[in-house]
Design brief:
By secondary structure, the protein is an all-alpha fold. The chain has a domain of about 210 residues. The protein has 15 helices and no strands. Helix 6 packs across helix 12, helix 8 packs antiparallel against helix 9 and helix 12 crosses helix 13. The longest helix is centred in the last third of the chain and has 30 residues. About 35% of the residues are buried.
Amino acid sequence: MIRKKLGWQGILLLVLTNLASLGVLAWVLHDVQIAELWTEIKQMHWGWVAAAAVSDILVYVFQGWRWSILLRPVANIPMMRSVRAIYVGLYANEVLPFRTGEIIRCYLISRWGHLPFSVVLSSIAIERIFDGLWLVLYLSLVVQFVDLPRRIRDGGYFLILVVAILALLLGFIIAFQAKAKQLAARWNWGDKATVFIEDLQAMGGSRSFFLSWMASLPHLLAMTVPIYCVIRAYGLIGFTLWDAAVINVIVRLGTVVPGAPGNLGVYQGLIVFALLFFGIDQDVAKRFSVIVWGIVTLPLLIAGFVALSVTGFQLRDLQESASNQSDDHLK
């Protein structure tokens, strides 16, 4: 069954990404002393821990708000329904490979809003471009205050190039729909590309498109807050909100490519890399990476499980239905 769905290439990619993630996780956990880690957990400031958990939940409330605004020209999706779909998707991403939750949340909104699956997929594509645009601007601002490592700068330049190309493509489709359809007709997937262009035009030609782009800013900025709160809870000295913003940039850039479920291993490795840049002892950085991952992941699992329970679906059934819907769309 898995082979049929993924194909051999997909299985190979799944194995390699999970092996790489497990390798990073093994490196992070190698020198972590459980007793010392537990002592640090007990000594944390739990008011800041609570603030981190609440702020992490609000990140995805902002995302649900943005999604509802973006879809407004084609359907009136209540914000909390969008938030619920996002949390079900996040829960799926924590336990399933290849960020399957993205397809599952598309399926739920398509079902609840009586929308074509292609429209919802198009909205996800627009979200990614919005996130990329704001991340580029965010990175440009952060580097004015912090001298980032060369690898991060190079990654940022590459992101700028990719986002610029996607933004120009999106603008061309919205402004010149007829010409875009003519060009798409030359491709093997011309029919699918034409549907995608029409879906983008439906959302991109409205005032809600600009409003949803603006709503992407608080969504991105809010991602810095949980990291800063955990830093304060843990007691790392000398870190500012700007420093937390740098860590957020590193994590966002490093998790663009799908890894193991829940970014296990990759997330911890990126946190360690960021803290080493700030001169934090490697052992401390490793323990902190485990703690911050737990604090930002546990609320997602709880909220996602509750959201899934409210839908009345089983995760396996949702995965199967969403996968079938996606396969039908690509045929």
